[in-house]
Amino acid sequence: MTVEKAWGGRFREPAAAEAEAFTASLPFDRRLWPEDLAGSRAHVRMLAAQGILGREEADQLLRGLDAVEAEIRADRFPWRREDEDIHMAVERRLAELLGPVAGKLHTARSRNDQVALDTHLWARAAAGRLAGRVAALQAALLEVAERAPEAVMPGYTHLQHAQPVLWAHHWLAFFFMFQRDRERFLRAGEAADRMPLGAGALAGTPFPVDPARVAAELGFSRLYENSMDAVSDRDYLAELLFACALTAAHLSRLGETLVLWTSREFAFVELADAYATGSSIMPQKKNPDVAELVRGKAGRVYGDLMALLTVLKGLPLAYASDLQEDKEASFDAVETLDRSLSALSGALRTLRVDAGRLARATEGDYSTATELADHLAARGLPFREAHRVAGRIVADCLEAGRPLEALDLEELRRYSPLFEAEVLEALRPAASAARRRSPGGTAPERVREQLELARRLLEGAVADA
Amino acid sequence: MTVEKAWGGRFREPAAAEAEAFTASLPFDRRLWPEDLAGSRAHVRMLAAQGILGREEADQLLRGLDAVEAEIRADRFPWRREDEDIHMAVERRLAELLGPVAGKLHTARSRNDQVALDTHLWARAAAGRLAGRVAALQAALLEVAERAPEAVMPGYTHLQHAQPVLWAHHWLAFFFMFQRDRERFLRAGEAADRMPLGAGALAGTPFPVDPARVAAELGFSRLYENSMDAVSDRDYLAELLFACALTAAHLSRLGETLVLWTSREFAFVELADAYATGSSIMPQKKNPDVAELVRGKAGRVYGDLMALLTVLKGLPLAYASDLQEDKEASFDAVETLDRSLSALSGALRTLRVDAGRLARATEGDYSTATELADHLAARGLPFREAHRVAGRIVADCLEAGRPLEALDLEELRRYSPLFEAEVLEALRPAASAARRRSPGGTAPERVREQLELARRLLEGAVADA
Amino acid sequence: MTVEKAWGGRFREPAAAEAEAFTASLPFDRRLWPEDLAGSRAHVRMLAAQGILGREEADQLLRGLDAVEAEIRADRFPWRREDEDIHMAVERRLAELLGPVAGKLHTARSRNDQVALDTHLWARAAAGRLAGRVAALQAALLEVAERAPEAVMPGYTHLQHAQPVLWAHHWLAFFFMFQRDRERFLRAGEAADRMPLGAGALAGTPFPVDPARVAAELGFSRLYENSMDAVSDRDYLAELLFACALTAAHLSRLGETLVLWTSREFAFVELADAYATGSSIMPQKKNPDVAELVRGKAGRVYGDLMALLTVLKGLPLAYASDLQEDKEASFDAVETLDRSLSALSGALRTLRVDAGRLARATEGDYSTATELADHLAARGLPFREAHRVAGRIVADCLEAGRPLEALDLEELRRYSPLFEAEVLEALRPAASAARRRSPGGTAPERVREQLELARRLLEGAVADA
Amino acid sequence: MTVEKAWGGRFREPAAAEAEAFTASLPFDRRLWPEDLAGSRAHVRMLAAQGILGREEADQLLRGLDAVEAEIRADRFPWRREDEDIHMAVERRLAELLGPVAGKLHTARSRNDQVALDTHLWARAAAGRLAGRVAALQAALLEVAERAPEAVMPGYTHLQHAQPVLWAHHWLAFFFMFQRDRERFLRAGEAADRMPLGAGALAGTPFPVDPARVAAELGFSRLYENSMDAVSDRDYLAELLFACALTAAHLSRLGETLVLWTSREFAFVELADAYATGSSIMPQKKNPDVAELVRGKAGRVYGDLMALLTVLKGLPLAYASDLQEDKEASFDAVETLDRSLSALSGALRTLRVDAGRLARATEGDYSTATELADHLAARGLPFREAHRVAGRIVADCLEAGRPLEALDLEELRRYSPLFEAEVLEALRPAASAARRRSPGGTAPERVREQLELARRLLEGAVADA
User: What is the ipTM score, two decimals?
Assistant: First the structure.
């Protein structure tokens, strides 16, 4: 007696229920049915083209796969846990629909290369979709930037007022940060662009297969060079998860910024009611829930990356079941990113700016003190000494409770005779920002260039998503 | 106009669908309904006892909560995504069933302390359940140990044959490793034993509540000392996740051991067919799938721990929505451990030992070479010099392709005149093992003591689970 | 020819320089010399007491170990990289000082149990030291709390003003959070309280050793039950690293709080100049460097924990060199925590509070809106309905730009006839805080109890450190 | 009175010693002196070219920087902890050497963009060096592959014998895995190719700087688009650390393979004595220390990546001191990889293959059972049915204790009349391997192609390193 599994030939006992439940991947890999069917169709066509299957058999199999797809789409597919995984579920159903010819589908193929193909297809698409979602977020950032592009606000380092910057300049910093993420997702898509089918279990197959044909049909531009590598490689998922993790890091930085700026203390922006939540007990609360969750979800995505890396640690070649643990982490990271990017894009598109508040924020904040030092340095005083003079002025003002703006030229000259009248103008926040004309700087003309570039970088990108 | 949320009073726009979907925790926290209902019942009884609710109102609420429970159990509860979370779902349904009096349930309570209570209840129970599961695994380890307790096998360091050990000794090493895990889960349960209700949103409540009464009803032995700490503390979850992570590490070590020992090269044990799987392509394969998955799932659990720690990083007091991300990681880790422990216990209980293979494994493996050094050291040669002599003997044997067992006394005396006849006996693997009588050592009498202790440690524990 | 290593007997070639450099642990484990010497002394005394060494030999070895210690302390010890590790360095030097008798030190001992003993000793002490450092931080938190204990400030959830709390209440939340850390370090110390010597390489030893005597001399209260477990267990380090990681999480929360509160927007506190740093370019800057670094160092400590867990993943029994990677992660985490706790304690002890700023922060912030709802609920309106009424009041006030404090009774009665005069008092922040008298709440009498408890918890603790 | 720091102007108290020690990065960033000097030189030349510095001043500064370099190289540089970091140490020393003109060096520059430049330079070089080290490892892998290229050995999945593969095929799988790592390091180098100087503290500078000139001098091909992004971006380090982490994962897989294959049970290879270590107690031991450490060090590198990602989590713009924590993690990961790659390359170059052992390993191992199924499938039996027949044959052989090789055609025909004589040949391991001629497969002609490609991919690469 042999056991009723596709692989049951040498087995004398059926699987223990708990072992079957524990090892089955069907509950989570059934979402790969579109990839699995696409892969099987390409495989069947190639087998037929190579004469490994008869034309008629191939047609039967293709019609059977169509029928399976129809059942799944109509939610009529009879899922069974004993099927272990999506590959076996499809093949089992095909056998029910077509009879023994269904058993020809697995010719010259192993689940090891089959699941690798499915996962490559999935990862390639996921990377592309996330690149589009990032572009949508960038578009939203650009919208926010353009809402008050030349409004002056405090630029922060160490969360202390550092130097005045333009509103748009701050948001563009995020824009260009996410530009790297978008490019990273595109590269993650390229990393997945390698076709593994034909590797068989690990050693290749004696059937005269044509992997290049399968690759062409499925839009892959490269094959694996080595069949053992093909079934054990999960680098493309690690690349995708890393792209997710770094994007999640950036999202958490943006989320933190929104949490800060919607606080009563900062109050630079206000979320639309539609993107905020209330409290079950405190009637006045308006919480930046979306921003907080986006920030918190960095943990989840980091955890997904760490999970995959740990799975890979110490694993000998070629395939091992540990690799089955690649999927849930990948699905979770991609879905988390997808939803975070969408929700945050919405929150940004509906964000209100409080321009008055921004303007007041740089009043009396000493954030133009660098101008004092730069002024002296431009007049020949070594910068280090100029910094010291400016430091003394600040210290005295702080002690006297006076803003820098209250100083007049005479007073300044008591600290250094090099001071000239135009320094007083430079102490105005807007003037200070306008003077920072170095490439990438916060001066209005530089920021306009950046806005222009940002628009160009988005052309086509959002539509693609 | 105000928005139709429990907190909608100050809001003028409804929630955006994608924001609502993104922020809702109901899809994953609805599993906390038993804890939520238990907490609400205790809350209602306390409110009544303190005169904050009328007796009649309390009875109504309690009957309403019973009705909710009945609906959930019968799968008739009308779940709605707009409910955000399990707390609001229950309260909304209660209002439908009872009318305005349902609105009294949330008196002197915030979702912040309510969710903290639910999670404490869940974590305490989860820790207890996992302690029981670990005990069941220990029982299985003990069974395996007792299958051939005094069979001699190679003991490994660096995966090289080091010194002969008893079969049971090896398995007991795992037993005592998991004993620490069991104790750690019990401590994780104690970490969750702290009752947060009464903390309100963060500052306590003006109602004359009696948290001690709620604690007593729900079996908690401690309260929080500070209400802000009560709503922002997730340490008990971190402790639980750490206990999961370290147990997962241990399971991965056991899993690796099974993968090695079921390989053709080791072949010390064979998995029952019921706990092995086959290949879709290679008819001879019998894969240690369960052991591999258990090994791989360490990654997942590490990721869950890392996720929670990252969520906590840099979060100011008191509650923030980031903390909502505590749940899925915790649920996933606990469930992963639960299933891993069960599946592996089954695989162990049905494991077959190949005693002949074990016996042959120490033949000619030089693993008793330490005896040569110990023999000389016991006769006064400094151990370091004795080690050197033994090393030379091994080197010469290796070169000549002879096992240590082939040496006779005369030959040995060419290396050192201190060798006496009894050294030849000590070179037998079983004799070597039997000589290691130090506490915790591998000699049969020491191993019998360990087995005895192991049985005592399990008394009552498995039944509890 | 054999190679000149303590273990060189069977080796025919010397170690490759790069392999030697790569595998040597001496560069980082030499810091364990005090533990190594302590362990060796106890080992020698036990060997002598058991008659395994002669009294005279033991005395020689003990004098030799004293000489080694003197050389190390005087920085005259001739460290050599070829020594591989601290154990071999000491033994090699001993041989130079004493001649062949030094070779008796390693009788009945392996580096596997020796390094385990050293690490247990180190971990136990490190845990105790960190518990003391946490106590010192708690003392500093208590000092800060007592600086303006009953000053009222905004309590935050979601970084939004939630309800007024007392200054001391907020700091006490941190105090009790760190109380758990202190207890966790004490438990981590207990986890290290298990004496491994006597386990030998993995199987125990044939010499009649007395591990209990070694344990007693070194202050251990337990032995390992199983020798293989004894040499492969690193759980006590994982426990220590987890305690470090969770404390680092808490420190990052406190660090973030300081960064926020020293910002110009919050400005609740000011760091002493001695605990702040400036900018190389901006003369006005005063950066909360210590707080930021403490926050950032959470990453490092999380990384150390993840490193150790990853090392353990999939490692079969008993010892493997991978375990050598336990040390640098542990040293780094402990040292990072030690320095973070000290630096932050100093920053707190010198922190200045701006009481006026705190007082102004709750003006017109709607943070007493819960009082409106509670007031109505206490008069019989179901809380949910009361919340809705209060929400409408807040919404109307926000629209009109009026604070809650500006409302009079008549206006309130337009929303609900249940409002009574005393509600106006409750809308004052201080009064609102004072009403939250539930256990652990923010009312002054509750906070005084917490302060009292905090003082009691610290008694003796800081001195111990 | 102001404090004696470059930024001390506004400070009235000196730094607390423990705060200074805690915040100083000099102990670890002093290794960046070559990058810091290179950056300063380019900065000075640009300032002069732009007329911001006089030609003479620039020459003085350049001579001063040369003097500083000479002192550092000669180990005569007076390092002082109070210098905080490498930037201040150099500037302070310059002031001692040159007087006030040294204070001009920092014109139009902040430490924020300066440290970013240094780190970019370091990361770019580190990535290039590691790419070279990976190439050297690949060369060693190729050497090993070519040592017995067409020897047949068991190919494993699930650590069970799966199908026979060629020795070179297995090693080439590693070769191509590391090829991706090499390319990833080259991309990490490109990620670092972006020049930040000119961003100033965060907002750009009013001096008429020319960042493109600095970039050209230092070999950068791109500038940052936005100055705030320039000082807060650490993506290039995250990319480098991810490349390190994934390479470390691969190294751990290779390390595990060596640990397995040097075990007595596998014994496929033997390490040279020069790349193995012995035991302090067991004279026969020859431990694969290098392979184990390489495996274990994956944990460390994963930890470094996790550390950096955690640091970035939730950090608002622009610069914060948390970012200072980027360095030690990066240095550690790069150095760990560098040393691991070197040590393992050496171990591989000196590895001995036991060809006889390989040959025997596939005897009677059923690893050609797939041939039975493929044979039937090629004759029209649906593969699934063919698999079942082959499974029954294997089951019967296992029960009877007979190898597949013992079957004759007559017996096979009892299972299926489709069997033909040539199946018997296919059951020989070498023949089975030779039949797997699909692209990337293990047949000798395919493996020769792979070897050829591998050689081409290495051309020039190792020399570059």
Answer: 0.96
